Structure to design on (206 residues):
């Protein structure tokens, strides 16, 4: 039974609880149960969610900058305009998340599962996505400048006007010529072996 009135602590069960507009900066919430918890507009910067269950949690406009979500389960979580800048999401399950227009700048997503993730217009500048699975992810207009993409799987990803300017895609797997042709790049974009940059990138300034 969820203890919605329990204080923040490691292993706490706040499943299906409303925790909106709270200040929980730096709190240890590791291995907690937050399935379908509403964290919208809460300040969770630098909090510890390592190993936590955040399935279908709501992070709309929440601040998680610098938070530790190592190995956390965020499957089907939502969070339009959430701030994950500098967060650690190593090995996190982010399959089918809906995080459009969110900020993952400088975040560590090494080995994260991002299959079928909705990440349209997200900021992934300088993020680490080594070994991450982005197969069939929706990354239209997402920004990857300076991101580390060694072994990142982009099989079937939707790359309409995805911003690959300055990105090294040479070690990305699953990317096709068609996906690359519909994305945005510049003379510093390095395509994977066997692919070539289009004669003219379809990159209207927005």
């Amino acid at each position: 039974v969820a203890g919605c009135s329990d204080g923040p602590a490691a292993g706490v069960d706040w499943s299906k609880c409303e925790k909106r507009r709270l200040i929980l900066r730096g709190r240890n919430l590791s291995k907690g149960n937050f399935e379908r918890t509403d964290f919208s507009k809460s300040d969770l910067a630098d909090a510890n969610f390592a190993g936590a269950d955040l399935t279908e949690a709501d992070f709309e406009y929440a601040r998680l900058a610098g938070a530790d979500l190592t190995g956390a389960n965020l499957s089907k979580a939502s969070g339009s305009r959430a701030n994950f800048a500098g967060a650690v999401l190593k090995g996190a399950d982010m399959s089918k998340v809906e995080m459009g227009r969110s900020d993952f700048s400088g975040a560590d997503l090494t080995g994260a599962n991002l299959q079928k993730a909705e990440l349209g217009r997200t900021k992934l500048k300088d993020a680490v996505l080594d070994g991450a699975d982005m197969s069939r992810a929706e990354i239209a207009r997402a920004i990857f400048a300076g991101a580390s993409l060694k072994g990142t799987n982009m099989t079937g990803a939707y790359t309409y006007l995805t911003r690959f300017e300055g990105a090294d895609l040479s070690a990305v797997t699953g990317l096709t010529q068609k996906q690359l042709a519909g994305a945005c790049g510049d003379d510093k974009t390095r395509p994977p072996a066997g692919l070539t940059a289009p004669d003219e990138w379809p990159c209207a300034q927005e």
Q: What stands out?
A: DSSP finds one helix and no strands in the chain.
